[in-house]
């Protein structure tokens, strides 16, 4: 632990810390461009010059390149160093256009800040500036190459950190440019990070272009709602419209990065179909009338049919506060059937995780430090994209990555892949734990045995698995394997991406209660007459649509709180419009039990872009904004329960009532969130093993799977993400396609118990024969194919054959 | 026009398969395409990437880094005139102007008969012979207008032969 002196202040830092990092610890920002905490130093911009007064290398040195040493004396204010930095800044500025007034980066531009910090104010260079043609990089990113200062951060971010393969550095000398070989959309699902990392206005957000100056934005710390990782974000809004989302630093979760679903999936907030007014029986009503109607329906149901005939359904995307209040409301009405997840398989998985994760939980930050990562039936790019980024960093740090999965993996790094069928995955999970391998070919058996040994030998192994292919039974086996691979000295880590941003809370809150299957049975048996749905869509998210529909049709009243129109709100008798996450305070618990708070960014309301139709908004003076009726679900529930409708007071109350969530009172101050250590109750043992029924000859075992572009309702309501959504396609083995006279790219008709569906064929050699995958897109043609409900039997015919 | 004869393609394919870092063949393969095809079109970049089993971007980065790899059509002979300091101190600028007048083209252009393309270049390492230029792989210097006339006539004769 060397102690050095920087600008007369002593600081003790860890071995290997550079001078620039040591200065940062003292709160001294040495001007820099190429250095970035996540990317490291390149030593190429020469801006971070300091003078080393005492130490092995005296004189002007680059602060990002020199490791701190004991007794070192450094000054950043030395006149020669100051002049050096001023010249470097002036040099970087010789070709930079003075277009700050029309540049989206203006106001949050590192080049502006560093130029001022380095002391360069007046332009002396009178020559011609070098200019470039710009390249079209697709719907998300605008390139303005003339602003480039050649720091290489974009390439280091896109290629090195994110693993993209279609962006690079061209030319030499003062002609250096960055881009793709040919114009087109950047293919990496993490492309948006180059916007955050570019220190000037070369790469800016196309969806945000010319919408607003950065200093006019309403911003507040937030948490991404698009998957269960809980990446930290900084959304920005103006004139009642969510305009952009940036990554916010949380070293334990997402570091400095988010995925493009999180960044560009923000169109839901201003979607024209947002639910804006309370409705009772299809009529728009006031909040007072709506809440009176809710009260009336519930008391009528209880009076006519007795206590317990009203049931409550919570959700993986409602806040912890709202889910807790729903539970309190249910208890107050005498309900014994409160369910927090409408997908029974995902419910079981969330309960298993909440019950068994314990100290073996791993965050994406932990994953980066792992030396052995075993993925079994997980597709991080679809289920938890930033996890794929963390796995890549582990690989770059020398970890071994092994994937057991029937699908062709899409990880942005090198890996070993053993394509096993979903049944074989179950077998592998079981036998890796027992170390007795039966039912395999000699090669497979050797591979698995070695894998088991390597897992035991690894210093910091992590096992990752997800529910869509493994099912709840598989996730339990996964935990058994984790336990079997965890000697006391060295526990094996585990990470299970869950279905939604608050699934873990749902798993914890279910408390051993019934699941949605039980609830549907109760409805079908006439024991439940009224159902209250909190920001959930059982019509679409329950795997068997027919069963959900016939059961829910028997209800006397369906009361729904939600922000966006769903099948459930369309069937509802009472609709209470709620805010989307950026419009209220709230908390989510992510996949590893990390409780994180997000703050309100903006009030709900129809954006000025809508009310003005692109022109000046109507010149009508009112006390309130149009479309501002949606309220946070927790505020609606708190009002019903006569509890405080103010965040801090409500959190105090909730923390007092349920001490598992005592952290709620302080959570808005916790920079990296707070792990909820309470242990959940595991799901009841299940007879059904998730075994796939034997299929008719000629049929394929069809597994619906998640996709990057459409796994959650928020992103499906985001038009910006449309370019990422493919038309329905089926993924199958080359030989299965050939048998059916199909080739890659051909059109085909898929027939299953869900009817006929036109799909495009995609085939590869690595998929085991007899299995096919159908990427699921909420609200699209593939909506009925809900992942996590097991496999379907299907047949596939070429379109030409049909005709 | 063919980018690279099949036997040379096979040469690069097998050589790439036999070595640990096929990227080291990028320059050789680009030059092979250039000497056969005259310059490297986009398809040439894609072809080299496919032959070596690497990404097109990795080939393009190299192709654009070197000014002796031509990513646009050029004449049958490319004249590289040194504009670095030694040649500059020995009237290099006047030589460059003379070449432009003589050929009737500006830097970066190709003569109408398609024989010469004129390009500036950084130091050719021929400072002892300054002012210098390079045509193909031959360096010429010290240059005078008379010497340039002779060289151009000689090269033109070679090309038409």
Short description:
The complex is a heterodimer of chains A (803) and B (161). Chain A is α/β, with parallel strands linked by helices. Chain A is built from 26 helices and 34 strands.
Architecture overview:
- The complex is a heterodimer of chains A (803) and B (161).
- With 803 residues, chain A is an alpha/beta fold.
- Chain A folds into five domains: 3-93, Ubiquitin-like (UB roll) (Roll); 125-264, no CATH class; 279-347 and 504-675, Rossmann fold, CATH 3.40.50.740; 358-495, Dimethylsulfoxide Reductase, domain 2, CATH 3.40.228.10; 700-798, Barwin-like endoglucanases.
- In chain A, a hairpin with a 6-residue loop joins β7 and β8.
- In chain A, α17 crosses α19 (545-552).
- Chain B has seven helices and four strands.
- A four-stranded mixed β-sheet of chain B has the order 2-1-3-4, covered by helices on one side.
- In chain B, a hairpin with a 2-residue loop joins β3 (133-135) and β4 (138-140).
- The longest helix of chain B has 16 residues, at 145-160.
- The chains are: A alpha/beta (803), B alpha+beta (161).
- Chains A and B meet through β7 of A and α4 of B.
Write the layout of secondary structure elements.
The complex is a heterodimer of chains A (803) and B (161).
Chain A (H helix, E strand, L loop, with lengths): L2 E4 L2 E4 L6 H7 L23 E6 L4 E4 L10 E3 L3 H15 L16 H8 L23 E3 L9 H9 L6 E3 L6 E3 L13 H5 L5 E3 L12 E2 L2 E2 L8 E7 L2 E7 L12 H5 L14 E2 L2 E2 L2 H19 L4 E4 L6 H13 L5 E2 L4 H13 L7 H4 L4 E5 L3 H4 L1 H12 L3 E5 L11 E3 L3 H13 L7 H16 L3 E5 L1 H18 L8 E3 L7 H7 L6 H9 L5 E5 L3 H4 L3 H8 L4 E6 L4 H5 L2 E4 L8 E4 L4 E5 L9 H4 L21 H8 L6 H11 L16 E2 L24 E6 L7 H4 L12 E5 H6 L7 E6 L2 E10 L6 E5 L16 E7 H4 L1
Parallel strand pairs in A: 1-5, 16-17, 16-23, 18-19, 18-21, 19-20, 21-22, 23-24, 24-25, 29-33, 30-32
Antiparallel strand pairs in A: 1-2, 3-4, 3-5, 6-9, 7-8, 10-12, 11-12, 12-13, 14-15, 14-25, 26-27, 27-28, 29-34, 30-33, 31-32, 31-34
Helix pairs in contact in A: 8-22, 9-15, 9-16, 13-15, 17-19
Chain B lengths: L5 H13 L7 H12 L4 H11 L3 H10 L11 E6 L2 H5 L2 H12 L12 E6 L11 E3 L2 E3 L4 H16 L1
Parallel strand pairs in B: 1-2
Antiparallel strand pairs in B: 1-3, 3-4
Helix pairs in contact in B: 2-3, 3-4
